Amino acid sequence: MSTVPGGDAMTVRYHRNGEAEVPEHQARPRPVAWSIHPADAAEFAADGLHCETRRCRNPQAVVTWRWWRSAEVGKVLLTEHLVCLEHGQQFAARHHTEVEPPPPRPCSSRHGRSR
Hints:
Elements: H1 9-12, E1 32-35, H2 38-46, E2 62-70, E3 75-83, H3 85-94, E4 99-100
């Protein structure tokens, strides 16, 4: 039997690090969504990037962040997606928030994150 947690749920609980455990009562930050600056959105569209939602080919217009608790690593992790306006509004509605306005200046690095 491997000593590294894999896909078997029975082995994961025996390999947890007690210091890395996240208390169940620890609050996760609220999900957030904001519009991409128009200059960045135009650059993404010129590079052929599209919504990260499956089968959607609309241009990227909104960034979504959602925090979630990973039982395997015992930490709160962040998920970021670049989605179209429609999927960004659906995300905001699902999490009872609004899509925030874009930042005042475009992102300085290419695509705003490492790919």
